[in-house]
User: Fold these one by one.
Assistant:
Number 1:
Amino acid sequence: MSWTTNESEDGVLSKYHSESPLIDESNGGSSGGGVLLKKGPWTSSEDALLVEYVKKHGEGNWNAVQKHSGLSRCGKSCRLRWANHLRPNLRKGAFSQDEERLIIELHAKMGNKWARMASHLPGRTDNEIKNYWNTRIKRRQRAGLPLYPPDLCLQAFQENQQGQNTGGISCGDRGQHDPLQVNSFEIPDVVFDGLKANTEVLSYVSDLTDMSMNTMLLKGMSPQYYSFVPPTIHRQKRLRESSDVFPDSAGCVQNGFPLFDQFQNDPGDKVASSFGASFRPDLDPNKSLLSFDVTQGDHSLPNGNSSASKPIHGAVKLELPSLQYPETDLGTWGTSPPPPVLESVDAFIQSPPPVGAFESDCSSPRNSGLLDALIHEAKNLSSGQKHSDKSKNSSSISPSDMADNGTLNVCENEWDEYREPISPFGHSDTSFMNECFSASGSSLDDPPSAETFTGSVVKPEPVYADLLPYKVRESKRQTDFTRPDALLGSDLFEQSFGCIRGHGIMTDTIATLNGDNSAADYMHLPSASSPLSQEWGFNYCVWNNMPPVCHMSDLL
DNA sequence: AACAGTTTCAACCGCAAGCCA
DNA sequence: ATGGCTTGCGGTTGAAACTGT
């Protein structure tokens, strides 16, 4: 138990430990008289005093609590205790599914505006919501899942388009929309809070109409694009992470296969290495997004075409919108010392690399809700396609690099075959896979158990059952997703992974994770001997967009 | 059972806005 | 206009609880 004087409320002048939960009022009752103020956990007697005080005097004037109640707590502490624990009508316990969904929705809309979010969740405190969200971020990061359900992004986008079509921008939280009254996963005014009254930014919103969501999602808008970095991350921290994430020749960026670094703490190490070994010989850097040549520490390519851009294609594809990191120096990518692998992965998910071509065109709605970033990214992609020439000579990645990349086209074309016909945008493969592999859960937090490749247990990620694409739902009826064998043998699985059949990656992966050869049986595949080159681009796309290899652990 | 690693959550801190004298 | 005070907010910390080995 620590104590401090209230001579400086925020600056602790002295601390010491005491056995006594409460300080004797005789120590001094004046709030300005250097009274020792207690810190740390509240005791029930303190709570009682505070409750009694509020009953008598009402809320507010918290600095007076100490005077009138004998509590040796600073006003701030009293207010916090009251607000978070003592006030009536507080809802305690785990968030319900509806609440969780609402939080996600609200966060997409507001960003880290915990207090505002709390006002939409009766009985919940900003602190609770904040803690929940931070936990969620960690979990989803670790699992390699997007922060937001793809549908949320789509919905935001559609809302935007509707706004365009009806001659106006859907403007943010106007204080009228009460999400509690929204039946479904509706986010009518999501996204554009930060765009109001900013014509420059709005201009890119209009550009959005040039591209479909399909384009956005399929041409490099991998799921990780909408696992946007939360704005909670300090700029300085972002910078550090951004540089950490792009060490020179080592690691995720270099090989363009970021998520697979997660294998490195796992027996799946073998998988990671097998990827490198399997693919390198056949890769054509001009066609593939990836470069597995670990010798490319200078980011140069065999064809001499590019510098930093090509090898990090995959990274950029996987990354978050650059708009939040315009200040990060691209040049630092290759100079920072290699970070710990897992940190790297986490940071990689969280902190996108800056992309010069991206940052050049638009101002960044940095402080807006996270989905703003998606829109921003979409605009960047769009504009990048329009100005491909400009970026070709750039040392940084540009959207056109991605757009021009034949692999992506392959990816898109092939994915069309697998695209969910009912879903308006074919449903991202991420959601598809996420949902496939976690579809057995009925609760938002109740999918099958998942383990990360760090070996630590990760709380399963929410499943948005009602967001399941039709095909998945249909398949779900016929397949027991709680049973890996059933899933692996199902048509759904076949469809999902059919794209990567033929080269044995999946087989190897599963076999590795299983520690046996059963995967080959499940996959009905020839094993690693099959040619890779034709399929690699699309394969990569699938893996790229697929969450997470980690999710293979869900399967197994 | 003991230990270590991880997660959760209550509480603290610093800052900023609003109010008022 | 200014400075002090109060309140509110968002980020961070650290202890407790939990889980795996």
Number 2:
Amino acid sequence: MPKKSPPLSVEKRRRSTGRVTLADVALEAGVSPITASRSLRGDAPVSDDVRARVVVAAEKLGYVPDPAARALASARGASIVLLVPMITNMVFVDLIESVHDVLFPAGYQALIGITHYDPAQEEKLIRSYLAHRPAGFLVTGFDRTEAARRLLADSGAPCIHLMEVTNATGIYSVGFSQADASAAMTEHLLLRGYKRIAFAAAQLDPRTLQRAEGYRRAMRSAKRYDPALEILNADQSSIALGGELLAQALKRKPKPDAIFFCNDDLAQGGVLAARRRNIDVPNTLAIAGFNDLNGSDQMLPPLTTIRTPRAAIGRTAAMMMLDLLRDADVPTLNVDMGYELIVREST
Amino acid sequence: MPKKSPPLSVEKRRRSTGRVTLADVALEAGVSPITASRSLRGDAPVSDDVRARVVVAAEKLGYVPDPAARALASARGASIVLLVPMITNMVFVDLIESVHDVLFPAGYQALIGITHYDPAQEEKLIRSYLAHRPAGFLVTGFDRTEAARRLLADSGAPCIHLMEVTNATGIYSVGFSQADASAAMTEHLLLRGYKRIAFAAAQLDPRTLQRAEGYRRAMRSAKRYDPALEILNADQSSIALGGELLAQALKRKPKPDAIFFCNDDLAQGGVLAARRRNIDVPNTLAIAGFNDLNGSDQMLPPLTTIRTPRAAIGRTAAMMMLDLLRDADVPTLNVDMGYELIVREST
DNA sequence: AATTTTTATGGTAGCGCTACCATAACGCCA
DNA sequence: TGGCGTTATGGTAGCGCTACCATAAAAATT
């Protein structure tokens, strides 16, 4: 007769977390855990009645899959990294929101990284996010370090570039031509009869520089390009800075009769400053912006601007990412979402 | 003599991911994996030279811990859930950024959930985020379902409430008194000699209603409260709506000589609309806002408002969360970050 | 009817890490 | 000197899930 019962009690389960696991669901449905896993993921041949039984069991027990376990076992998680330059710029907030609104209902968690317009910082972020085994990457623009590019390529996770377009092959991108949009605005001003059109920009990130390029292209082909009319400032863009750039522009020679600001923050500051100085907009001076931010239609006068499809870009890119992940055919590598010239009273 | 060698080749490693693991680091340092784990986490007794050896080995091999494996093994991940009502409101963007800036360098990933001001949605989000085994929760305000409250409590993860303060015990919160701030602005207007001060609000979320309460309190104690001067609108707040609310306010009887908008979006729309109608601000009509958003100082005239410490709230709460997680003593349960009355020309 | 191919299911063994327990080595005090 | 706590390290066994392989049954082919 044994002196002692075995040290393990009947219900051992050393570190029970109380969580409903896939094994519980499988038991309830009378199948093996693997079959349950396949039934719930739907990526393998499972008979319809088994799948239904598993789904019912999962529902009944309130089963919620564990993302950590899933990521560990499959070497690919349910998170998608979204790298943006900053979030104090509403353009990127709109982007984040639209991406989130598509990915979250599909079961993916957007991990937001902020690069502060610094390629080195972006590279560090990519390195650290790779440890999370993300399913994919959504990155802003094409300007990054060679190492970052290689990290992304080697990760095996799909990567979509946002906000700009390229005609490079084998690259996924969703955006619009910043240069074309900027040229279109410049042409609008030329068509309205303005002759000395200044271009005022801050931040000087890649997209801002592309806009400058579009402005130059349009001005040159109208034979009106004059480098003296470019006001480029590396500081961070803000409404207050718009007023300062307006003051600087008005001191230039020749004195501009129109100012095209590279974004609406600056342009809003510009119209407010003009008003403060009793400058007649648009008769003495036209003012144009870029992005059509909230409030631009309420300015005095309402602001002529370029409406950029940032929400549509986010949505489209997120849906493309989902297609890539369930590896459906994704034929369109580069999607140009266009832009829209919004003419209001400021020009 | 065995006819066949065993089926497993020397280097089996069925599903090698190529990743540098803790075991690799341990081997390099000549210790066991557990000791390596302890050395890198620093939460257990390890001799200094062993710890140093492990750190060097980790550095040399470029070891990056796997968050998924860590979460799975420890039933507590390195992510912190941050639930905000929306991100198209700059107040919450500032909050997100400041939280992120503290948590990310400390090795925590902020998971951002958007509740759309809907407690039911928030409850769903909490349920789904619990599957991620977050280390903690940062939530906005106190208004939530009973089930959500229980889920948070049962999770065992610390929870800090943002933006408001309470004197309930055993609850962590970092914020300020919305009602007091609102009352202070109302008193400022009364002191300036305005008598028929309207309160114009949109969205009508809990914090907006607290501001309304603060307004009422101040108006009542000055014996000037008149329900006819409250303009409450459930639509989403925007600059354009501010103009509409101004128009509505001016039709009320008695006709207000000041309008206190519950936030700066509306107030900015208000001053712009007043300007458009050639109303003299502040002589015919004073306008005040709340939050001190970007651009309010550039309005015509610059806007009197309440500067809310949202960045400081995010920072403080995030640091408090880090303290709670390394379970240092966190004596201050409710932190009032205060507010600041910014008087400009609009009042 | 015998064979191959396809389809549905299960068994096993990890993914990389840490909780728990055990153990050895080192004091400390009586 | 022996018992007892304390400190540093290691062994083992999972956390919950899925990749890989095997196998049985069904269908298609010869």
Number 3:
Amino acid sequence: MDLWPPCAVCMRLEKAYDPSQIEPAWAEWWVQEGLFRADPESDKPVFSLVIPPPNVTGALHMGHMFETSQVDITMRWQRMRGRSVLWLPGTDHAGIATQMLVERHLAKSGIDRLEIGRDRFLEHVWDWKEHFGGRIVGQLKRVGASCDWTRERFTMDTGLSRAVTECFVRLWERGLVYRGEYMVNWDPGTRTAISDLEVEYSPKVGSLWYLRYPVEGSDGEFITVATTRPETMLGDTAVAVHPADERFRHLHGRSVTLPLVGRSLPVICDEFVDPEFGTGVVKVTPAHDPSDFAAGQRHGLKCITVLDEEARINSAGGQYEGLDRYKARARVVRDLEALGLVDRVEQYTNNIGRSQRSGLAVEPRVSTQWFVRTRTLAEEAIRAVEDGRTQIIPDQWQRNYFEWMRNIRDWCVSRQLWWGHRIPAWHLEDGSIVVARSEREAREQATRRGQQITHRETDVLDTWFSSGLWPFSTMGWPDDTEDLRAFYPTSLLNTGFDILFFWVARMMMLGLAMTGEVPFHKVFIHGLVRDADKQKMSKTKGNVIDPIKMTDQYGTDAVRFALVASAGQGSDVVLKEERIAGYRTFANKIWNALRFVGMSLEKAGADVWTPEDLARFEPLPDEETGVVSLADRWIFSRLRSVAEEANDAIEAFRYHEVASTLYHFFWHEFCDWYIELKKLSFRSGGGLTNGWKNMLAATERSLRLLHPVMPFITEDLWQRLTANTPGRARSIALSGYPQPREGDADPLAERDVGILQGLVTVTRNLRSELGLPVREVVQGTVHSHDQAVLEVVAGEGDALLKLAAARFQGSHGKAPAGHALAHATEFDLGLDLAEGRKQAVRDKLEKQLAPLEKAALRARRRLANPHFTGKAPARVVDSARATLADYESRIERIRGTLSAI
RNA sequence: GGGCGGCUAGCUCAGUUGGUUAGAGCGCCUGCCUUACAAGCAGGAGGCCACUGGUUCGAGUCCAGUGCCGCCCA
């Protein structure tokens, strides 16, 4: 990439940072250069992660962006600190969602999938995938996700499909897959079974109808049943009462007649009946209600299905055949009313289960489906978390995981769809089934049984079945590959709590069952991205903030920073555009700081530096005086602390802490104090002095600290800063992450800069409170008992003049009465002022006195308490004494000043 | 019905094992175009840490209860 022709100092930057000028090019360069390619042969320690594969037809939303930002921080950090990193990207075929999308698309051109047939339809879906599948991948590249794009996978790739078949066959062979007629959640919209997890419940106000069924052999006697779904009465095969319910003892062993149909229904006794609900008598419809289905099994009742795949009444519904379930309901009620069999109707609110996909009310339906037996799989998955092989962070999610796993039900994995992994089962002439890795293998099995294959199973597998294999199917399983050996189990999974059960739990179960190992050692669960009103972002609400739009407008770095800085560990992000704009100004600050450093270096005539100059850990002394400047000692010490905090925070997934630490350091320490102090020693034409070398090293190290969080601007500036440095890394992403070294701490420098900052701040404050002209140099005296303060006053006169516009004399001891105007812990400060300012001084000091006296009173009371001095640890008591002494000293000095002026 | 989380400045949120006068960003007020940045600089105001009780020498932090908000499961 030759965006930057070599120049003496490649730092002639525009005044304002414009991310759109640099980001797309760097994003492309990172991919082209293959900087993030994983090396299975590396002997470095490994850090690996697979991306939660987004839907292949999807577009990047803020949730992806948030997750990607966090992961990218971790991955770039791991890479910079010398790990062999694999970040494996890819996409998911998203069975139902994609099939619906393509069906809708085809419908617009008047094409019906049932007319064109399975094969033609699948061709259309693949076309669609080729056409739109690249979008989200391109967006991930654009926002700088440092994935190994050479390893991109898709859940329907040949290799992954083979893994799906292999897994299914192995589960079948172990008796962990079974097929049978059971009640499942049926989505009449997509006309497929769906799993329990794909049903979303919401309360809906409806009616509770009380229907009267005539008792047989007892003329004129009725029993009344309560139901929310009168149309299902067409499929009733019994009525039930609780065995201990005395009210209905006389009905035991009797029968009733089902109105409209005329069928005779036995009265059964079963404890599933709640005597408190309705009348205490319930109609039993085994084909259309889960608990009725179970009761039907217990009592050997017939199961009469009256609804078809689209929830219309079928031929078993007699005169109602062909009616939609809601129309049928109205007709049934009307007809019963006409017969006087509707006793009454009450308003009733119940929870309606809706399909996550179609939004239609789910219909409990008996059908033949494939299930994974989950109990033993779940037990192993629970154990793996209990014994710490996999750690869930933050740990509150562990409880949810255990709770769900312990109450898990068998997993319905068959879907009546076309787009997905077709179940590797073949039907034989005698109605039996073989499960096999291939049609040939199936034929062999059939032959052994003396049978012929009639056809292959038409159902496909739940999308989450293939997603459940993702951590190892993507690395070549079931073969024993180099990647699997190097990178599996993966180190970390970063994902949202919304798919903890859908995905994480299934990966745990299938991973352990197939590979004998946990799929990942740590799971970090992040929160949701919400809008400014804390609402979930959704297309239907129209409140989505498009990450790509924000990226184009403010820069990826700003969007990433806003996302990670806005969320405490594991908590939701409330995202406002102003916040993103705020971090663009931070990027601009960095840009200008580097612009200034570059310009100044150019003026100084320094243009070439060595890697050693950049990697310096100890500041160099001034060539003439042989002394290391206070500013340099201080910034090197601060860099050490910040490196420590940043490393610790990233390691522990405290991303918001990384963000705020770096933000504060760069802006309020590096820019506000370090650069300002260094300006004092800037000279033209002096070349690359030691002072410059120190600044260069500090600047470069700051960029490296920031890189994982703000990859684009730091890459760009780092490339410019090091353009003429021989032997440097190709990219900042491949340079080292700053590590704290014990010897780099300089507590004396930190103390002295603290004093300097105190003097400057107190002076500025006085200046503002007293209304002194901003740049008028004032004279004054600093009184202190502390030798360190007097040394700073004597040694940092230039800094005080520049930063506080003041010339100070040091004076040992207390200030004479009335001379000082400000009283800090370590010093009194006096300025030479005209008389007229005295009242302002008085106001200011009196304002300070009140809270100080309150605090002193509290401290005094505490120290007077013998329980405190007796029981609290000595260090706490000592520090309380010191604090009180400080309060009292300041109060006394302020009072002294007040009475003297 | 069972479970989980939250309640701290006008807004969005930090606050590690209990220990000085509770922090940040944004917003607000005042003054500055100081030779990197007005997307800037300097200064400032603003808080019964939801409520009640308890443990403790000491509670935003630990315990119990109450209220409100949100989420998950049935």
Number 4:
Amino acid sequence: MSKTTSPVRVRFAPSPTGYLHVGSVRTVIFNWLLARHTGGTFVWRIEDTDRERLVPGVIETMRETVRWLGVEWDEGPEVGGPYGPYVQSERLSIYREHADRLLEEGRAYRCYCSPERLAELRAEQQRAGLPTGYDRRCRDLSDAERAELEASGTPSAIRFRTPLDGTTTMVDALRGPITYENASLDDFIILKSDGYPVYHFGVVVDDYLMKITHVLRGQEYLSAGAKDILLHDALGISPPVYVHLPLVLAPDRSRLSKRHGAVAALEFRDLGYVPEALFNYLALLGAAYSGDREIYSREELIELFDIDRLNPASAVFDHRKLEWMNGYYINHALTLPDLADRCLPLLRDAGLVTDETPREYVEQVVGLVKDRIKLLPEVVELTSFFFTEPSPAPDEIAGRRLTPEEALPALERARERLEAVTEWSDEPLESAMRSLAEELGMKTGALFMSLRVAITGRTVSPGLFETMRVLGRDTTLARLSRAVDALSGVAA
RNA sequence: GCCCCCAUAGUCUAGCGGCCUAGGACGUCACCCUUUCAAGGUGAAGAUCGCGGGUUCGAAUCCCGCUGGGGGUACCA
């Protein structure tokens, strides 16, 4: 397979019927990467031709989704462009015009069959175990019959006059030529009775008019690919390069859906995934760029992406790997100020941080826990003791290795020693406590654990001494005093 | 049922006729580091390249069949 070098015009054309699924987002990403890779154009088009399934407001949500991922379209709603309008419901006259032409040329015909008849027909075919499809009742109506139906005001749709025999071949860039028997196709509707185009027709007309060179779309369109080719032939135009992207599957190999957990891209944002990680993960799902690496910056992805890097097989969406990657971005890829910016709203909502909290302090705190954050919201639980006073129970302070009677004098001594430390930084703090443990004849682990619980209220925390350092001398000593008080209440 | 696509470890993949005693990553396990948990480091287990036939001096790589999985079969996209 060859490299794509000249500037492409690609598009993503969602139907405003719901949220953007991660599989759709991956399609967006591949299209966008190809556009950027070749210095081409990424077009956004709204395919709102099914008025019954329209969901108000979702166009805005979709835009929010792709912007969150750092993707912008070059042409489309709002930004405009030379081939607008970019909303199909605003292009009805265009479809009508093309449909009329096919009608005149005998490549299409009016069908007066009612939806009820069609449903009945399908039911019968299914009952008889026959392939379903239109029986072409209106294909060869006489002029008189047609005139009569028109006069009676019977609504009509426009159907494509599919060749009865022969074959049609679509070339898919990942799979090569795919040949379909025309006989297995029926006379599909291109323009509904309400004047709106049906998918394949709208797409072919718009992609042509918008000068789309490459169509990267979901595999679900592959089996009906012959319709696109037939339509191009009838309209006397050349098809674009087709790339049918494999589906995103759930772990049980079924189509990924709500019942498998998060599927809407924005849900991942709300769960605490960073867009860089989701982008990276999705760009790698069903594709590979060098085979020996998983983490790629957006720039590298643009540089390395090409159609021949895509795998034609469906891929299972692995939450665990995404989570690993998210943790990697949080711990290694984002700068500390950046990470702090993303944690701040969460800490604020949790009531841990206010406008008075020094930015510097928040950054230091986040810096101590970032290597164990997998999902952003975890920062709250991980750092709460930096912002609120813990009050561990005496036996928690003593821990599993000490009794309160043993812990009390140890912590009293520890407090004295720490108070005497002149330079409040990691090394002096650590050596002071290590020598204390030795003097007391205690295991460092036992002493450190008591200190940890006394100071953080937890048995799990960042390194003890860096925690003390960031907490500061006063807070650390105050917490130790409280712990000593708590212990003496029991040990006395 | 009919039509279409796909097929390398549990998962994502490298591989495009000899470099493969099949490489990387997630996950799993072990060890190291170590004050806890992570992170990090090292290593291990895990794939008769779905199965069966060909083609070829030689096949994970090409062809055919089978099986399995997925998709489509609407006046939905």
